[in-house]
Amino acid sequence: MADSLEPIVSFRGVAKSFGDKSIIDGMDLDVREGETLTIVGGSGTGKSVTLKLLMRLLQMDAGEIHAFGRSITELSTQELLNLRRRIGMLFQGAALFDSLTVKENICYPMVEHNWGTPAEMTDRVSQVLEMVGMPGIEALRPPELSGGMKKRVGLARAIAVEPDIILYDEPTTGLDPINVRRINGLILQLQEQLDVTSIVVTHDMESCFTVTDRIAFLYDRKIAWVGPREEAASSGHPVLERFIQGGRGILEPEEIAVLDEV
Amino acid sequence: MERLLRFVDDIGGLGSLTYRTFSSMFRQKIDWNQLVQQMDRAGVGSWSIATLAAVFTGAVLALQFATGLQPYGASLYTGKLVALGIVRELGPTLTAVLVGGRVGAGFTAELGSMTVTEQVDAIEALGADPVQKLVVPRMLACLIMLPLLTVLADFVGCLGGMLATVAEVGVTPRFYVEQIVDTIFVVDMFHGLFKSVFFGYFIAIIGCYTGLKTTGGTEGVGRATTDSVVAISVAVLVGNFFLTKLFLVVYG
Fold first, then answer.
1. Is B122's Cβ below 8 Å from some Cβ in A?
2. Model ipTM?
3. Interface size, chain A vs chain B, as Cβ–Cβ contacts under 8 Å
4. Is pLDDT of A2 > 50?
5. CA atoms of A214 and A218, how far apart (whole Å)
């Protein structure tokens, strides 16, 4: 990589295993400020784990992760809190708190980070709900929302305290085609409006190509290929090429066999 | 061997969660709303089942003692034995097993569902501490409510014993109450309450720990809940023996 800019997030030799099962081993990855980077890979290859390592929701076994120029393992409690304020995360199932209303859900990070007065929070809640295209639903509870609506509220909660980086864990999984397009549109729109860095994790190649600047391909426990999305189809990495083609047309039996190994 | 390792692992996990819970209790602010809500659910919600169990246990003890003591002409002393049995043993233990089944299962199911739907991760990602938010209020609620429920169970259990004794042996209620007042000292009450605080700790720590380490989706929540109820009952019954021994060594 020829860029002179210090990456905003970098992974060096990161390893993580659960019990005997090694999920990630020797992973290197740089994320540049202001870009949208998509990590693609098959199910269970450690994409979500990567995001959780960055948030320090999981502890890595080896290696180093730097964010905003600091190693995240060296942070004090207060600094870790600050790191988590600067990184917003949209969870796969949105992970809204069922016992709280939409408004209370969105206020949650603001209260924890002493973001402002109650009046300012109320304004901010309606502002972020407006941004995700769902104004006026403050009083509803998560069980009353559809899957697509939950994701959008989850996104509103993730951006409430104005993070510098947004992490998307499978943002379009389990949604109908219209909602998939809506979420993709939102990712692009927020990228423009908020001037943030986004890391998206997905196995949905179509939305990957819609929203991303660069693609990182996670295969066999490390990043096997990383580059601009235009080059991904001719990356020269056979499995990645199959993976991209996997989204289109009907697969030949031998192709399915190859993809099964991914 | 693998089961042994897992057991040791769980003991370590329980110990570490205990440390984090109590250090958070004293260092971080307590969520009073949550605490009141948990006390209401765990304590107030359990009084009916604790009372019901105590009445009938007191009564059945009285029946057994009245009959068993008759050959020795000692049925008059039924009240003393019933009261001792209730206040020292059955009040705290039975309450803990029942409340443990009800409340502990609730903790595990709730925290387990939150874990598998990543809500616990979300609490952390949004800048809060899941131990402070979820475990501390439940722990405090159990530590406070278990002794209170035990006092209630002691009282109601003796009352149940009185009904049966009066009916079976034919003593007056006044005589029965006088016997209890003669027999039960503060140290007996304290014996039961001392144990009930530990039982409250067992219920909260096992219920929360099992919930927080749930894996495997909704099916995992079901499995965790069953495991949790079994573990709580075993901890209460086995722990009761050792706590009793400890108390007797210290206070005679």
1. yes
2. 0.88
3. 41
4. no
5. 13
